[in-house]
Design brief:
This is Glycosyltransferase. Residues 14-133 form the Glycosyltransferase 2-like domain. InterPro entries: Glyco_trans_2-like, Nucleotide-diphossugar_trans. The structure is a single chain. By secondary structure, the chain is of the alpha/beta class. The protein has twelve helices and 18 strands. It has helices at residues 23-34, 55-62, 77-87, 106-117, 171-177, 189-199, 234-251, 256-279, 282-298, 300-312, 318-321, 330-338; strands at 2-4, 13-19, 42-48, 67-70, 92-97, 100-102, 122-124, 127-129, 135-137, 140-143, 148-150, 166-170, 204-206, 212-214, 224-226, 229-232, 325-326, 342-343. The strands form five sheets. It has a six-stranded mixed sheet, with helices on both faces. The longest helix is centred in the last third of the chain and has 24 residues, at 256-279. The protein starts with a strand and ends with a strand.
């Protein structure tokens, strides 16, 4: 792992871009950062996760001002971001996907809002679908099983999470939380860090203005509506169900956790059996749903230890915690609207 190049002055914001085989995307992403209308110094850090498409050499040659961390091994999204933040110099961190492009006033808006709050907070921007220009969300709320629900209310004072594709956080708050759990690999790490921040009394907000454009679902091939059907990949569904359950077990306050976790795991089993029968695929059940259940057992000691630490530092009341949650399961909404999901 070799970091190179660094600005001489202390930056206001360090933009951290995790890249894996993003040669076709990285120009547009980097240019959107370089073209920011912001008076302060911006540091750009790219972690190349052992790409095989020549991304690292391309960035090194064409963007000499970028701090490039070239990993020899594929470490995954969580580790990539943890490494970049550890190397960052900025007061604020902006995590940015390599398939995302910022509006030209994005960093100025985020910085101004962060300064006005006068307290550590996680911030996000309206997300727009890059191919169509349609609004995807203004942050997300949750159902009780930690399934993110797109929010379209720009006046909502707080949300449950902002997507990790464009997530603003003070470096001190990131360090206080401990960053992303490296053992997650990828997916739901943004759910985790936003939920832990909220439990510690820090706001999680999505700005109503500016925004970013995003090729959503490109990295893991999921979470997209194609021809009015919800389509996802088996690999994404496997990691998503596992990691969301990890977050629920670690962060859900007592006594709610003792009710929700057994209900959640029971519903997952039922969902897995029904979906596997409909799709005539036992592999779907074993790889996604049974894997999720066994993973909780395998990681039980780590989950217990992290839950104890998170709950001991909790500063939010249960009523305030529940403000970003909805009673109706989001999967039911999607089922009624789009039918049985396509899992490839």
């Amino acid at each position: 792992m070799t970091p190179v190049s660094r600005p001489d002055k202390t930056p206001v914001c360090s933009v951290c871009i995790a890249n894996y085989n993003g040669l076709k995307l990285i120009d547009a992403c980097l240019q959107s950062v370089l073209q920011q209308q912001f008076a302060g110094l911006i540091e750009i850090i790219v972690h190349d996760d052992a790409s095989t498409d020549g991304s690292a050499e391309y960035i090194r040659t064409n963007y000499p001002s970028v701090v490039l961390i070239a990993s020899k091994d594929n470490a995954g999204f969580c580790v990539s971001n943890n490494r970049m933040v550890e190397a960052a110099s900025g007061e604020y961190i902006l995590l940015l996907n390599n398939d995302a492009e910022l509006f030209d006033d994005a960093i100025a808006r985020l910085h101004a809002h962060a300064q006005a709050l006068n307290e550590p907070a996680i911030l996000g921007l309206p997300q727009y679908d890059l191919p169509t220009g349609d609004l995807v969300d203004v942050g997300n709320t949750f159902d009780l099983f930690f399934n993110p629900i797109p929010n379209f209310d720009r006046a909502l004072p707080g949300v449950g999470m902002v997507i990790g594709a464009c997530l603003w956080i003070p470096r001190t708050l990131w360090n206080d939380i401990g960053g992303f759990p490296a053992w997650f690999g990828s997916i739901a790490e943004d759910v985790y860090i936003c939920t832990v921040a909220r439990l510690r009394g820090h706001p999680v907000q999505a700005l109503p203005i500016s925004g970013f454009r995003h090729w959503g679902g490109q990295s893991f091939g999921g979470g997209r509506i194609l021809e009015n059907r919800l389509s996802t990949k088996l690999s994404r569904r496997t990691i998503s169900e596992r990691n969301k359950t990890f977050v629920m077990i670690m962060t859900c306050p007592a006594p709610l956790v003792y009710i929700l976790v057994p209900v959640h795991l029971s519903l997952l089993l039922i969902e897995g059996l029904v979906l596997s029968l409909v799709k005539r695929s036992w592999r779907l059940f074993t790889e996604v749903y049974w894997n999720c259940l066994t993973a909780q057992w395998v990681e039980r000691k780590r989950l217990s230890s992290m839950r104890k630490s998170i709950q001991e530092n909790k500063k939010i009341r249960l009523t305030n915690y529940l403000q970003v949650f909805s009673l109706l399961p989001h999967k039911l909404r999607l089922l009624f609207k789009y039918g049985v999901p396509e899992v490839k």
